Structures are given as structure tokens and as C-alpha cells.
Amino acid sequence: MQVLETVKVSGQSKPSAVAGAIAGLLRSQPQIEVQAIGAEAVNQSVKALAIARDYLADNRRDLIVQPSFVKLPQADGERTAIQFIVTAIARV
């Protein structure tokens, strides 16, 4: 099992900055992980993924996004997060 580069998103994250990080990572590797805890963080993540598609269009690449729930260890126990596995593919 390969270890994916992880982008952690908070409710205060700027979607354009997160999109830049996502696009930059996907230019050098085929797949990454985006993690978000809470409704605001998930909202910012989805916005960032939409923006990242535009950033990657110049490279003729598109995204496949697979969301799932995961349990993440925290200092005060466990938290449920949304995990997006993001794969870059050739744009048709």
C-alpha cells in the first residue's frame, strides 16, 4: 500500500491556495489525499477541488475524486473526517 501525500484543509483555508497545492502535487504524482474535518472544511475542500480542475486543464489533466469517511486520531480521541482520494487522469 503506497503512502499518499496528504493535504489537510480547515474551515479557514483559502480554496485557491489549497487548489494550488493540490494541482502542484498532482503534477508530480498521480494520486493524493485531501482530508477535512467539519462542514466548513469539507466545503472549502470541494471548492478547492473544483478550482484545481481549472489549474490542471492547461496540462490536459482532469481529476477523479473518491470521497470516504475515515477516523483520524486526535489528542482528545478520534474524529471522523472526510477523505478525498484524488487521482489525476489525462483529459479527453
Tally of strands: 4
What structural class do you assign from the helix and strand content?
alpha+beta
**Regions with little confidence, pLDDT below 50 for 5+ residues:** none
Task: Give the CATH superfamily.
Answer: Alba-like domain
Question: In the CATH hierarchy, what is the class?
Answer: Alpha Beta
Global Rg = 13 Å
CATH second-level architecture:
2-Layer Sandwich
Strand neighbour order, sheet with most strands? 1-2-4-3
**Percent helix range:** 25-40%
Give helix and strand order, one letter per element, not per position: EHEHEE
Shape: globular
User: In what range is the share of β-strand residues?
Assistant: 35-45%
Any idea of the CATH topology?
Answer: Translation Initiation Factor IF3
Largest sheet: 4 strands, mixed
The number of helical segments is 2
Determine the mean pLDDT.
Answer: 95
Counted up, domains total 1
Cα-to-Cα separation, first versus last residue: 29 Å
Structural summary, described in words:
The chain has helices at 15-28, 39-57; strands at residues 5-9, 31-36, 61-74, 77-90. With 92 residues, it is of the alpha+beta class. A four-stranded mixed β-sheet has the order 1-2-4-3, covered by helices on one side.
Write the layout of secondary structure elements.
Elements (H helix, E strand, L loop, with lengths): L4 E5 L5 H14 L2 E6 L2 H19 L3 E14 L2 E14 L2
Parallel strand pairs: 1-2
Antiparallel strand pairs: 2-4, 3-4
Helix pairs in contact: 1-2
Pfam families: SpoVS (PF04232)
InterPro entries: Alba-like_dom_sf (IPR036882), SpoVS (IPR007347)
Protein name: Stage V sporulation protein S
